[in-house]
Amino acid sequence: MTLRHLRIFVKVCETGSVTLAGEELFIAQPSVSLAISELESYYGIKLFDRISRRLQITESGKFFLQYATHITGLFDEMEKGLKNIDATGTIRIGSSVTIGNHLLPGYIKAFREIYPEIRIEAVVDNSDRIEEHVLKNRLDFALVEGSVHSEYITGKRFMDDDLVVICSKDHILAGRDSVSPRELSSMDLLLRERGSAGRETLEGIFSAFGFEVRPTFESISTQAIVRAIEAGLGVSFLPYLLVKEDIEKGMVRMLKLEGASFERHFSIIHHKNKFITPGMQAFMDLCK
Predict the structure, then answer these.
(1) Least C-beta-crowded within 10 Å: which of 22, 117, 188, 190?
(2) What is the dihedral of CA 254, 258, 260, 264, to 10 degrees?
(3) Phi first, then psi: what are they for 95, rounded to 5°?
């Protein structure tokens, strides 16, 4: 088993095709097939099921992919570091939307003041997609809200935030301090997209009460939701940090959702096989 075998396997997983993997690696299709067969024979496992001429990765294959991705990635990082030992390094950081809007810019600014020679590349997306990027080694680490879903990811809590209900200042709930899940379920809901941490939390709450989340307005933009709420289109359930300024300006009203405290944890996450460089650790240490 060689690094070449791992690269071929990872590329087949990325493309979903032996033919496409061969084209991207400039390797003949029989050589790609042979490399996969040799891996399966060497480890005594089946990496793919061949169903209706399509490759379906097996559970053993998914396990193997986590290590293969990071072994090849670590080798590439080593080569890049050795060839550019005096050059500027790069740290790839991911962030969920709440953290990306309110915390990440400040962290990056503070880091650049201390380490101006290190380049920061940042991606802001919903928590599910950020987690996927970490798993595939497209990001070195990430700052996310809520819980992670993969056993291959490790996380460390660094801050907390609350989820709150917001409505317009003219809404029937505007004069109240709280609302029950049952009442909320009967109202027009304006929510973030599926995969966002706040949406996932509300779906869990409604599911526990036997309600279904059916938004009348859905957006990846929190500001679009806030503007729609100001226009009286409904209510929402959002992270306090995202709507703090709008609440303080009196543009929207805040309520608590009855039944529990909806405090969320912000965490620094990375793949458990990821090698954390001193630069990465220095950035993580700034997050508090």
Answers:
(1) 117
(2) -30
(3) -155, 145
The model carries a pTM of 0.61
Q: What is the largest CA-CA distance in the chain?
A: 70
CA angle 231, 232, 237 (to 5 degrees): 105
- What are residue 132's phi and psi, to 5 degrees? -60, -40
| Domains observed in the chain | 3-83 (1.10.10.10), 90-158+265-286 (3.40.190.10), 163-263 (3.40.190.10)
Q: What is the reported pLDDT for 50?
A: 83
Q: How far apart are CA 125 and CA 100, in angstroms?
A: 8
Q: Which residues of the chain have pLDDT under 70?
A: 81-88, 260-261
What is the rounded CA–CA span in Å between residue 3 and residue 103?
39
CA distances from 277 to 29, 140, 142, 174, 235 (A): 37, 10, 14, 49, 44
* pLDDT value for 58: 93
Residue type, 102: H
Query: Within a 10 A sphere around the Cβ of 227, how many other Cβ atoms?
Result: 16
Q: Which amino acid is at 160?
A: D
Q: Which amino acid is at 50?
A: R
